[in-house]
Structures are given as C-alpha cells and as structure tokens.
Amino acid sequence: MVVELKEYASAQDIAEALDKQIAETKSTLGEYLRRLDEIRALAEKSKKIREVVMKLAGKKAAAESLGEITVG
To answer: Which of 13, 21, 36, 66 could connect to 8 by a Cys-Cys bridge, CB 3.0–4.6 Å?
Structure first.
C-alpha cells in the first residue's frame, strides 16, 4: 500500500489540486469510453462478417461463439 502525504499552503491550493485531479480523471475516462466504443463497433462488424461467412458456408452460427457474451 502506498501512502502519499501532501502539504498545501491554503484551502485554495487544495481546491485547485482537486480540480486538476478531477479533470485528469475525466479525461482518462473519456479516452477509455472512446476506445470502448471503437472496440464495440469493431466487434459488431466482425460478428456480422462471421455471420455472413457462416451463412455462405451453409452453417448456423452459434448464439454465443468465440467467447462472446451479451452485455446490456
């Protein structure tokens, strides 16, 4: 476990540090959500391509194949 002690000169400094940390966290979260959307879109395209190939091959695609799970 890591413990970090910080010393601030005023309450204003504390507020500024917290605001900066919140902004950085929001930015990181936004980046993660953007990546998640890209991956989700790619997975959907891959699933559709796989379904077309299976249909052309005359096979039925499994409902949950290749370790896929349905979320939401």
So the answer is: 13
The answer as to whether 56 is a domain residue is yes
Q: Does some domain include residue 34?
A: yes
Domain that holds residue 18: 12-60
Structurally, the chain folds into a number of domains equal to 1
Tell the residue number behind the tokens 């990546």, with chain if given: 35
Please identify which residue in the block is written with the tokens 């910080």: 6
Question: pLDDT (tens digit, 9 = 90+) per residue, 25-64?
Answer: 999 999 999 999 999 999 999 999 999 999 998 876 555 5
Q: pTM above the 0.70 mark?
A: no
- With CA atoms as reference, report the closest residue to 66 among 46, 52, 38: 46
